[in-house]
Amino acid sequence: MIQKRIVALVTLVMLIVSGLAVPAAAQAAGELTVIGKLAVAEKNIYGAAQTGSLVDRVTKVEQDLYGQEAYDAVLPRVEQIYTYIFEANEHTPSLLIKLNAVEWTLTQRISDSAIMTRIEKLEETMNGLPGTGSLDARLDALLNLAYTDGNFEVVPAILAKDTLVKIKTLSKLNSKQSRVGDSVALGIAEDVFIGGVLVLPKGAIGTGKITEVRQAKNFGRDAKLEISFDNVRAVDGSSVNTFLGDKAKAETKSMAKAAGASVAGMVILGPVGIIGGAFISGKDAEIPIGSQMYIQTKDDVEVYGIRVK
Predict the structure, then answer these.
(1) 2-25+157-307 has which CATH code?
(2) Is the CB of residue 305 less than 8 Å from the CB of residue 154?
């Protein structure tokens, strides 16, 4: 019976298939309508898309971002907002990569809260109270706290195929309650650097989904969960495709053995959060919050990272 249970555990873990979903902020600009781009911008700034007329919504975003509204046609104004927040290069960092640089430098991680909330919390941490004025000016003030003259280096980097990424689960998953199609929230558990350039920061999020749920049955058939781990978010806000391949499984198994887990490799039998994977509890498959494991990148991908000195 014990041997059967160990086999079931190994089968359960090895059947977890890859993924972390693409964050809305990282969708390619060409795939979004004008209203879609505005909604993505609002969601990242405030935490949710806003209501009202298109013109009023654009004006509010401009006033909050820059401290003044533009008087061009609506289309170029939305394009400018989207570009300003999300599109980075070596010479012109986006608002998002500037905020990520500040937050990581000051706290050694980034958060998944709305931009406005993140800036307020950083101001409270550094100055004791939230600032006033445009988000652009307030972020510049934080940059001056984090870097000499407020300057940091944005560097293009190639994130190679099969790069290992350590993640942790941010939601509880089990075969009794989870359903096929349910979103799975994940977070990067350790920074990933390429030659001194930060590309995947600790705290950045990703999303997977439940692809199969099998309930425990009579006659000894244990439950099963299958999960895809599709994408993680890079420091520039772009989406990086990932999966649970053989290299990631081997690294997770090594991590489990080092932590003193069972022979099954990726089984949690100790304190929750030390090691990741899955375990059987009364024949129900369960992956607790904070479970850690490795996934790997699907392809070579170019991202903009932050030079760390």
Answers:
(1) 2.40.128.260
(2) yes
